[in-house]
Amino acid sequence: MATEFIIEQLKKKFKNRESFSRSELFAFYQKFEPDLKETTFRWRIYDLKQKKIISSLAVGVFSLKYKPNFKPQAEDTATKIFNKLQKQFPDLKYCIWSTKIINEFMLHIPGTFTTIIEVENDALEPAFDFLKESNFKNLYFEPQAKEMERYLSTTENGIILQSLVSKAPLQKVNKVATITIEKLIVDLYCDKTVLNTYQGTELIHIINNAYNRYAIDFTKLFSYAKRRGKEQDIKEFFSKKTNISKTLIND
């Protein structure tokens, strides 16, 4: 039976669904291929993803609503820091990003933004000393609430160095190790000191916009939230405050 016909039937079957499970998709294909093997089914899934017909929302959960991946471009300051750190510490695990990337999700855009550098805990002090010696201005080492309020809230190009949570979900964009949409959402929820500007109703607005615009791997998101000790808290927040499907939260 023609592949195009099956795809059209697939779209009709799940068009009114926010999401559907792997087992439901398998059952759908079995109607056309009663002897469908698991290996063949995995290829069917891969092919559907490549054609942008379905996207993964979590392990074994799919959607017909294709959304692009979040690929934030590095600001000039972040690129300069990346080049310096890469040369001095070639084996260093790090994440560099600017709070300016949050602007596209916000209702009220802040007047200042901050470059955040996260490195392995053992490398915090050597990295800080190196960047200070490299004449980077407005550099802060794991600032506390008073520092954030007194200095960084009015500093246009502040730079914060802090510890990177192990196994945090990262990605490389133009060779720069940076934040993923999953990490961004969890960090915004968890870090009420450094990311204080983005709390309250603004946080709800940011998360809803991120959910509507980009592909989010909720398995990856909740795994990272668990590492930060906030999995259940963030699930409850999503359930009560956001537009995220309850199926994805409770899966």
- Give the strand line-up of the largest sheet: 4-5-7-6
**First and last CA, distance:** 33 Å
The major sheet is characterized as:
4 strands, mixed
Radius of gyration: 21 Å
Query: What is the number of beta strands?
Result: 9
Instruction: Compute the number of structural domains.
Output: 2
Q: What's the tally of helices? A: 11
Give the uncertain stretches in residue-range form.
none
Helix and strand string, N-terminal first?
HEHHEEHEEHEHEEEHHHHH
Coarse morphology: elongated
Mean pLDDT across the residues is 91
Report the structural category: alpha/beta
**Residue share in β-strands:** 15-25%
Describe the structure in your own words.
By secondary structure, the protein is of the alpha/beta class. It folds into two domains: about 60 residues, no CATH class; about 180 residues, no CATH class. Helix content is about 45%, strand content about 15%. It has a four-stranded mixed sheet, with helices on one face. Strands 1-3-2 form a three-stranded antiparallel sheet. It has a two-stranded antiparallel sheet with strand order 8-9. β8 and β9 form a beta hairpin. The model has no long low-confidence stretch (mean pLDDT about 90).
